[in-house]
Design a protein that fits this description.
By secondary structure, this protein is mainly α. The protein has two domains: about 5-85, Winged helix-like DNA-binding domain superfamily/Winged helix DNA-binding domain (Arc Repressor Mutant, subunit A), CATH 1.10.10.10; about 90-130. Helices cover about 55% and strands about 5% of the residues. It contains five helices and three strands, in the order αβααββαα. The protein has helices at about 20-35, 45-55, 60-70, 90-115, 120-130, and strands spanning about 45, 75, 80-85. It has a three-stranded antiparallel sheet. The protein is elongated, with a radius of gyration of 18 Å. The two termini are about 30 Å apart.
Amino acid sequence: MDQERRPFWIGPISAAAEGALYRQIIDRVKREISEGRLKPDAPLPSFRQLAEDLLVSVITVRRAYEELEREGIIYRRQGLGTFVSKNGHDRSREVKLNTAQELFHEGAREATEAGLMPHEIRELAERAIKDKGTP
């Protein structure tokens, strides 16, 4: 694939992977933004170009872009294209922070239900932080 043609590569998506195709696109774009590979005002591929690159329908890409735009992560300019918003990184990071918080709450609830004591739950969290989330 021609890397000069697009500012980023979000990798393949798959119907066999977890989550709807449009959700996979949303998650990958957010990751690219939050990890700094997509900067504010960076252009994104057109609906048609990204659909072609990912082998999905234009409707799937449009749905992903519309949700990203509703969240304030990207913006569109008539006749110019779609771009990362100035606060896209902060918005993307905020979404990831909320997700992480929900997962920590869920993990603490599961650990409590499994009979772990608070100090054991903290040890699990510290181990996860030390491992940086790798299994």
